[in-house]
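FAQ: What does a ligand-bound record look like?

Like this one, built around zinc ion:
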Amino acid sequence: MRLIDGHLDLAYNAVSGRDLTLTLEVLRRVDPVEGQTATTTFTELRAAGVGVCFGTLFALPRTPDSPQGYTDHAGARAQALAQLDVYRRWEDGGFLRLLRSGAEVNAHMAQADAPLGVVLLMEGADPVRDEGELPFWVDAGVRIIGPAWGATAYAGGTGAPGPLTDAGKALVTAMRDLGIALDASHLDDAAFWDAAEIGPRMIASHSNSRTLVPGNRHLSDEMACAIAERGGVIGLVFLSSFIKQGAETGATQGDLAAHARHYAEAEVVGWDRVALGSDMDGGFGSEKTPVGIGRYSELPRFLDEVPEEHRAAVAGGNWLRWLTAYL
Ligand SMILES: [Zn+2]
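The answer part, i.e. the structure of the complex:
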């Protein structure tokens, strides 16, 4: 089964000093990142059968926990450009192939010996100076943008409620007109509904259900429905605290499947909207992934929790349909 993962922070990890071209065993021996046991390398993704992932350009803002983060547009842009360069060097080295259209995704998925395919997704839009700069990022290969992470110049985000700003409305309007999809993961509710009204293509690359874990990081049923009504797909996140309320560690694969079943069976959106958005390398390590999935090559075990008739769709078919239709 070929998998498609809607959310991985590959280049962010590389910029953090991780060489993802190593095997996981070797990376773990030399890993400069402390406190987060690495789970994801190119060999792990290949072993899991991942054909395509959405690879982020993620600019980290300055916080008490991240003094190296950006404080202005120029700093955010520099981080995103550095990560773009990482993807390009990996492509030059044959480790991945950047995909820019549905036709390219289809051809890629049909090629058995292809390297990892990557669709670029910008997580947090502060690297974009204003909507006039969007064509530059489209030329660079970016096909999906999430306006928020925490709050950005464009939108209220996780733990930082607020609507789209005036700049955010202009950005989302231009995204709609240019055919750039909007990633609703991390958008605060107020910003989400502002964006939905403007009407871009919408997905949630990595978002579990708020009915099981409270908080604005997760999708309400109404938000999930709005994404589905716009043809979108929702990726399941493999982080314990996003799977089980109060569980910093130790959520089970069954706990994660409860999110999938809620989306799919509680008359919310259906199995054809549920997919993977693991975020397995997104600022946490194997300490916080579901029990039994301590490394990326073990991720397909989760699919055993999905009803057999929907397994291929959740593994990759739903994202493939979306990518083919809209990219
Ligand atoms: Zn994220």
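Follow-up question: can I read anything off the structure? Yes, for example: The pocket of zinc ion is lined by residues 123, 185-186, 206, 279, 282 (CB under 6 Å).
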